[in-house]
Every structure is written in C-alpha cells, then in structure tokens.
Amino acid sequence: MSSLEILKYSFRLCAQKVVSLRAAGAYLILVFYSSLLETPVKEFLAANGYRIAPWIFPHFLSNGSYQLVIAFCCIYFFSDTPFFTQSQMYQLNRCGRVRWMAAHILGMMESACVFALVCYFATVVVMIPHLEWNARWGAVIKTLALTDVAELYTSPVTFSYPLITRFLPFAATGIACVLTAFLAMFLGLVMLGVGLAGNRILAAAAATAIPMWSVIVYNMGMAARQKLSYFAPVLWLGIADVENKIYGMWIQPPYAYIFGFLIAAILVLSGLSLVFVQKKDCVFENEDQ
Q1: Measured CA angle at 138 (ends 164, 174), to 5 deg
Q2: Which residues of 236-254 are buried (b: 16+ CB within 10 A; e: fewer)?
C-alpha cells in the first residue's frame, strides 16, 4: 500500500468514524450541554430583542464543566480503539500492521479535527434564533464581557474582556478549535497506545484520569494551580486564561508550551503505537454496537 493509498484509506476511516452511532451520541451530548449553558444568554437576548455574533465558543471553553464534557465526549468518541474488529482483518492482512496502524492514526487525527468543528458549531446551532453574522465580536458579547449582565442572568459562562481585547474573533475561534482538535488527538492517541500495550479497559481508565486530574488542579489554590497546570492539558482549553494574569499570577502555561507539548506528545504516542502494534497479539472482536 503506497502513501497515497494510506491517506485515502485514512479519509475513509475518518468518514466512517464521524457518521457512526458513537459519534452521533457525542454530538448530541455536546449540543445538549451547549444549549444548557447558553440558556441564560438566550433569555437575555429574547428579553431585549438582541442578536449575538457566532463567536461564543472561545468564551465557553473557560467553563470548567464544559471542558470536562468535551474531554469525556472525546473519550467516548474514540472508545473503539485499538480497532481490532472483524471488519479490519482483511485490511490489516493486506496493508501490513505498520501501514494499517498509520492509516488509523491519520484517521484519528482527521476525526479529531471534525470533532473540534462540531464542538464549535454546537455552540452556534443552538443560538440560531438569536444569531447574527458579524465579523467582529459584536455589541452583545462586549456587553456581556464588560458588565454584570451575565451574572444577573446567572450565566455559568464568563465572557472574557481580556480575550476580546487581545484577539480578533476569527483568531480566538481558530485557536480554540485547533487546541480542541489537538487535545482530542492527544486523548485518542493515549487510548490507542495504552490499548495496544494493554487493553481497552486500561485505555479508558488512562484517558479518564487526564480530565479528572485537571479537575483536581482546577480546584487547588492559585499557587499550586500555577505550577500544576503545566501537567493538566484539559485546563488549557480555557484560552481566556492563557497568557493572562489573574490576581497578578499566570495560571496557565504560555501558548508555546501548550502547543509544543501537545505536538510532541502526539508524535511520541503515534510512534509508540506503531511500535506496539507490531508486538500486539491480534484478537479480533465482534463489531461495536
């Protein structure tokens, strides 16, 4: 199988993944929770006849519960790793283990990008009755960031003024989507590597430990959180806190560290998966329901 054939095969794997029942379940959870978080904002918009620009996603990522929902949806999304199902027997024998796994890794990366876009559009779709197209942040988001309106309507989401002053909406949304995709790749590859070295139960446990550790770090004091946030990747989704001092302290690593760590981890985990698959005893399971 040539490199081009591996790429084409990875696209087919990605297409199968993103329209699967498992993926649909993850999408529904994302839409439902996005709608739940946006309810107070929608009440504010409906009461005043306002419309909001489609740049809510970067602000929503600062909500700790939303970060967890994204992480656990991602874990569920990739819970079919390491792909040893009966339908894969022919392709594995045809491609060879390394090329077969390389195609699956590429497919996971492509699926992670689609997952990140779904996370963004989930926050937009539920706002459609109150949505306006605006290439800028718009008056409503600025009002929510500058005043206590969100607090008055008991919104669980904090709209960040430093975020809207530092970034254009396209840039902030792009960073948020790329970071979400990289985190999804990282969690998926953790599950893949551990699944190949052990089994699916260990893979799920290892991936679940990552967001749970982030919860622990999030609830620590500022000094401890400042140090331990370097090892809590789910917290990095909160881009409003990245390179922004809170009470005079940096509570998130800089972007260079975040993207450097995730890219390095993705490359290392991909390499380990290519090694582990050569030593794995292939036990093909029935198709996932």
Answers
A1: 50
A2: bbbbbbbeeeeeeeebbbe
Q: From CA 132, how far away is CA 192, in angstroms rounded?
A: 41
Length of the chain: 289
Question: In one letter, which amino acid is 154?
Answer: T
Element (H, E) at 270: helix 255-279
Contact (Cβ atoms closer than 8 angstroms) between residue 32 and residue 123: no
Asked if 24 contacts 113 with a C-beta cutoff of 8 angstroms, the reply is no
Q: How far, in Å, CA of 36 to CA of 244, rounded?
A: 28
Return the amino acid letter for 266. Answer: I
Lookup: tokens for 147: 């005043």
Q: Are 51 and 140 in contact (CB under 8 A)?
A: yes
- Please report which helix (H) or strand (E) contains residue 246, including its range: strand 245-246
Q: Are 270 and 105 in contact (CB under 8 A)?
A: yes
CA distance 209 to 217: 12
Neighbours of 76 (CB within 10 A): 16
All structural domains of the chain with their residue ranges: 3-277
Q: Which residues pair with 131 in a beta bridge?
A: 52
Render each residue's pLDDT in the chain as its tens digit; 289 residues: 677 888 888 899 899 999 999 999 999 999 999 999 989 999 999 999 899 999 999 999 989 999 999 999 999 999 887 655 556 665 666 677 788 888 889 999 999 999 999 999 999 999 988 999 888 999 999 999 998 888 888 888 889 888 999 999 999 999 999 999 999 999 999 999 998 888 888 989 999 999 999 999 988 877 888 888 899 999 999 998 887 766 666 778 899 999 999 999 999 999 999 988 887 665 555 545 4
The CA distances from residue 80 to 44, 191, 229, 248, in Å, are 41, 9, 29, 44
